[in-house]
Specification:
This protein is of the alpha/beta class and 434 residues long. It is built from 13 helices and 14 strands. Strand 10 and strand 11 form a beta hairpin. Helix 1 packs parallel to helix 4.
Amino acid sequence: MFFERPKSGECAILVHMNLAAAADQESPKELEELALSAGADPVEFLTGSLGHPNPKFFIGQGKLEELKTLVDHHDAQVVIFNHALSPAQERNIEREIQCRVLDRTGLILDIFAQRARTHEGKLQVELAQLDHMSTRLVRGWTHLERQKGGIGLRGPGETQLETDRRLLRARMKSIHKRLEKVRKQRDQGRRSRKRAEVPTLSLVGYTNAGKSTLFNALTASEVYAADQLFATLDPTLRRIDIEDVGPAILADTVGFIRHLPHKLVEAFRATLQETIEATLLLHVIDCHDDDRHEHVAEVEHVLGEIGADEVPVLEVYNKIDLLEGREARIDRNEEGKPIRVWLSAVAGKGHELLFQAVNELLADDVYHDSVTLQSSEGQFRARLYDSGAVLSEQMDENGSIVLEVRIQKKDMLQILSHLGMPQERCFPVEVNPY
């Protein structure tokens, strides 16, 4: 009711100013990609330098006249700024150029609105949109003033603007309640996975790094994947099997972007919870992108914002098929642990290396060994079978039972503790895991 949704192919003028006072500039190339992802047709790019933003129009009077000329020349339907504009600045520019104006946050919100597929995703986007638009409602009601007293002029006690704000707050409150219900359902699912000791791998990374393509390749799924920003919005979970670990959950999540609006970070906190509570993060990086270092830093910043900076990370350098002479490989640290995997999700190169690296990192918590049991240890044998830990059983030449066992280390320690057996029975003192 409050939103104007652009139609595909709208003629758009893009505006990017290099701000002398800003240490961290936005990318003009990224603005163009965002506009294309939203379905706009960029026809002109207005650029320039600015010492300080103009409080009234953000840009100077000269640039404003230039912008107005471009809008008239191309008969543009929308002007998109690569900056955050105040509600007053948006309103003032619109009044001058007689054209709809969107800032960077409004553009990202519109893309999210187009991509949302699930009930939860749509609620989250609507909440973020309502929050963003609540300060901009005045644009539609500037002709209405508080009604004065007098015969025929007495109103209901509030302006139309105040009525809309009240309705908007009520709608936001309703969405918060519905999202809280969804959060509880998600928490229940996560608790179930934790009880079953099923590890979760969460794909994170800058938008358009290839997360969904890799997700589809690893899980044989058909999640929507496209060469555009924010192709994935709703989280998707699939089960995969890892050799020495067993079943695991792979989660595909929304991509990050420079200066992701705080409204979106807050609205999507339930979705990003899959990232916060993951066992291992797979940070997918487009190795062919010239700005990859800045993108990596931005992802790490967002992970810190949502409280996921303590979760172990394995870097996945994707799209090696676009680099000449680059082969799939695993990079390791001084201790020999995998820290980076080079692969191509599209070409199918290096998938087995990624599984190998994940296996090595997660298998640290898995006890996989042969256990020799004496005839008096039948209870120990029964507990191992009850836990589903026994892979094979055979007799040795002395008549003892030899079991091949694979189980989480903490579960093995728990069994030993319940039976009153020392940890050294299975864990030598020098490699005691706890």
